[in-house]
From TrEMBL:
The lineage of its organism: Eukaryota, Fungi, Dikarya, Basidiomycota, Agaricomycotina. Belongs to the AB hydrolase superfamily. Lipase family. Class 3 subfamily. Keywords: Disulfide bond, Signal. Residues 89-218 form the Fungal lipase-type domain. This is Fungal lipase-type domain-containing protein. It comes from Pleurotus ostreatus. PANTHER family: ALPHA/BETA-HYDROLASES SUPERFAMILY PROTEIN (PTHR45856), FUNGAL LIPASE-LIKE DOMAIN-CONTAINING PROTEIN (PTHR45856:SF11). Residues 1-20 form the signal peptide.
Amino acid sequence: MRNLLVSWCLLLCTALLAYAAPVNIDAIDKTTYDNLVKYAKFAAAAYETNSKCKKPLGLGVDNGPALRFDLNGTQGYLVIDDKAKEVILSFEGTFSPKDILTDIQFWRTALKTASYSDPKASVHAGFQKAWLVIEKTIMDTAARFVKEKKGYKWTIVGHSLGGAIAEYASLAIKAKYPDLKLTEYTYGAPRAGNDVWVKDLEKVVGANNIYRDIVPTMLGHWLGYKHPGTEYWQFKEPSSPENVKKCQGGEDPSCSSQYHIAGLTISFDHMAQFGVSFWTNPLKPEKSLCPVG
């Protein structure tokens, strides 16, 4: 037993040292970094869309959410930023017992939705179910605003479980509207499907996916899961362009995928990324429930 404890301590210390090891990179540009921070805030705001605030958003967006949804555990909002000519769709992550039940349905099933199917792609059963309950609402809303807000860019965001659902939404909307300018930002998103799923997502969307904590490593390669690219990895604090690395693809061994055993340290990062705290509203300095527009 003593030898086992010593071995475990050595293993944990090695993981901690590896996590703290310096990473030699070229800093990302300020515009890229600012966008990572901006959309992290919109992802975090999804946790509070059920508050009584008329405008649970900030960042200069004059409008309140054009759509709020909460269907069988899948929650989020859609907001129109007319100044930036942008539609932002945000999905909430794991927050309730229903969400946990979704997360633990980790067996894979064929990708089959009304918007996009591929018999060779296998995906997380729970994440697909979470998308299916909201798919019609999202696609009907997309049809409306693609027409009403012609020429607007679309940005799909989500944290944790919400990041996985954001991948489905991005794939579905971009597949239906291939000329639409669409970008995806996910934060702490778990792996959601196999290599065919990744190829489909990258081919149709060309997504940016951000992850670096325990959640993205839990559904491992041994279960047949993979991440799409491109990963922007904040490898140490404080959050700054100098401390963020642009990785190669979605499974760069020099980025977050190298951590398989350091969950005790990197799990804390799941609650705050790029200086943004999830599960509290980051859009007002006081982080109250009702940020200003």
